Each structure stands twice: as structure tokens, then as C-alpha cells.
């Protein structure tokens, strides 16, 4: 099978990585396809199975772990699993496209370790923890308890930034999008 490139975007929740990834997916010359992650959480808002995530039960997810069906997986929060199915990467490569990931920090680093030559690992850094908290509250999708869990995790995730190939500081979204575009364009050429 012809292997494409793997482009990983990781960051604490609320850093803007999803917005940047959507921007890159809208650029046809980059030949990108979104890697749909598997998750054991419930859909949020308008999220759809097979488009945003492959939503699974915890038992179903654990069967996939046992069968070694994942490129990477993580129990991000207690009983809250996320992972990338091998079949998802193979599906995208079979289309002749490059895979773009919007995944947590630990998962992003696992992909980089597994495919060091094919992977560009990008960390999106928020302006501050306070700004992150504001962004998460403005989403209005989670309880204060969940937001506080994400903020606590963000401090740990920020410490991993130097392990990535590059860091994009998302102080201004348009600048961050332009920087991401140039990085990806250079990597795939």
C-alpha cells in the first residue's frame, strides 16, 4: 500500500487545533483526509457517528484493544477512551491521501514514535491557561467540573510541547492557520 504522510495536531482542549485542522482540510491542494477517532464518550452537540468520531461502548473499545486494532489509544479520563483505528489510516492511504489527526497529546506522540519518518507532529499552544478556561466556558458544552478537569490536564499537556516537531502559538487564529498551512505544505512536498 502506498503510504501517505501523517500530520498530527495536538493541544489542550480549547487551544484551537480543531479550527486549524478544519481550515487545512478545506485546502484541496494539501490532499488531506481527516482521521476519525474512536471514542467511548457520548456525542456532543451535532457530532455524528462515522463523521466526527466512531462512538463505541467501553466493552467494544476494549475488544479492539485486545485485538490490537489501534495505531494508538488512551484512557484520557476515567472510562473515557479515545484511539485511532489502524483501519482508519489504511482507508485514507488507500484513497491516496495524507492523514490529518486532531488528537490528544499522548496519542499524537505515540503516532510520531510509531511512524517517525512519515509524521509531522504539531503542538498548538494557547495564549494562556486563563484564555483556555474562557474558551472552554464559551463553548457551553460541558459542566464546570469537566472544564476544571480539562484545565488541570492542560498544564500537564503544555509540558509535552517540546517533544513535538513544531509549536504553533495560537494567539491570533488567522496567523496560526497561515503558519499551519505553510508547515503542512512544506512537509508534504
Order of helices and strands: EHEEEHEEHEHEHHEH
Poorly predicted regions are: none
Mean pLDDT: 91
Tell how many strands the DSSP assignment holds. Answer: 9
User: Globular, elongated, flat, extended or rod-shaped: what is the shape?
Assistant: globular
SS class: alpha/beta
Strand order of the largest sheet: 2-7-1-8-9
Calculate the terminal CA-CA distance, rounded to whole Å.
Answer: 19 Å
Please bin the fraction of helical residues: 40-55%
Number of helices: 7
Largest sheet data: 5 strands, parallel
The Cα radius of gyration reads 16 Å
- The amount of beta strand, in percent, is 15-25%
Oligomer: single chain
3D structure, described in words:
The protein is an alpha/beta fold. The strands form two sheets. A five-stranded parallel sheet has the order 2-7-1-8-9, with helices on both faces. A four-stranded mixed sheet has the order 4-3-6-5, sandwiched between helices. It has helices at residues 17-25, 58-66, 86-94, 105-114, 129-139, 144-158, 173-188, and strands at residues 6-10, 32-34, 37-39, 53-55, 70-77, 80-85, 98-102, 119-125, 166-169.
Amino acid at each position: 500500500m502506498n503510504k501517505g504522510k501523517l500530520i498530527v495536531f495536538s493541544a489542550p482542549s480549547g487551544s484551537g487545533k480543531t479550527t486549524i485542522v478544519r481550515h487545512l482540510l478545506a485546502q484541496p491542494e494539501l490532499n488531506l483526509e481527516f482521521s476519525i477517532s474512536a471514542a467511548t464518550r457520548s456525542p456532543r452537540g451535532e457530532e455524528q457517528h462515522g463523521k466526527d468520531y466512531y462512538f463505541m461502548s467501553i466493552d467494544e473499545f476494549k475488544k479492539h484493544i485486545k485485538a490490537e486494532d489501534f495505531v494508538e489509544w488512551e484512557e484520557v479520563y476515567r472510562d473515557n477512551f479515545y484511539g485511532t483505528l489502524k483501519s482508519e489510516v489504511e482507508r485514507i492511504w488507500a484513497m491516496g491521501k495524507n492523514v490529518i489527526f486532531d488528537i490528544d497529546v499522548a496519542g499524537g506522540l505515540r503516532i510520531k514514535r510509531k511512524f517517525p519518518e512519515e509524521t509531522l507532529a504539531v503542538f498548538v499552544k494557547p495564549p494562556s491557561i486563563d484564555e483556555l478556561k474562557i474558551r472552554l466556558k464559551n463553548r457551553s458544552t460541558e459542566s464546570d467540573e469537566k472544564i476544571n478537569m480539562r484545565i488541570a490536564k492542560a498544564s500537564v499537556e503544555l509540558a509535552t510541547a517540546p517533544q513535538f516537531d513544531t509549536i504553533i502559538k495560537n494567539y491570533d487564529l488567522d496567523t496560526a492557520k497561515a503558519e499551519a498551512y505553510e508547515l503542512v505544505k512544506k512537509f508534504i512536498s
